[in-house]
């Protein structure tokens, strides 16, 4: 087997029509949104109120 001097193999770059750097965050955001809608749909009203109330206090937003 002989190797030619001065020849360097170049990697092939395959481009896809949709960038994975944009697809993954969009997919994760959609999954989070569906999860939140599903959880809110089956949660009791008092539970949702308490969660919102606690979140407002935790972020320093006045709610009273």
Can I get a quick summary?
The chain is mainly α and 64 residues long. The protein is built from two helices and no strands.
Please explain how this structure is put together.
By secondary structure, the chain is mostly helical. The chain has a domain at 20-59. Helix content is 59%, strand content 0%. It is built from two helices and no strands. The longest helix is centred in the middle third of the chain and has 23 residues, at 20-42. It is elongated and about 75 Å long. It starts with 19 loop residues before the first helix and ends in a 5-residue tail after the last helix. The model has no long low-confidence stretch (mean pLDDT 80).
Major beta sheet, specifics? none
Low-confidence stretches: none
* Beta-strand proportion: under 5%
Head-to-tail CA distance between termini: 81 Å
Broad structural category: mainly alpha
Give the CA-based shape.
elongated
Number of helices: 2
String of helices and strands: HH
Q: What fraction, in percent, of the residue positions are helical?
A: 55-70%
Strands, count: 0
What's the alpha carbon Rg, rounded to whole Å?
26 Å
Rounded mean pLDDT score = 80
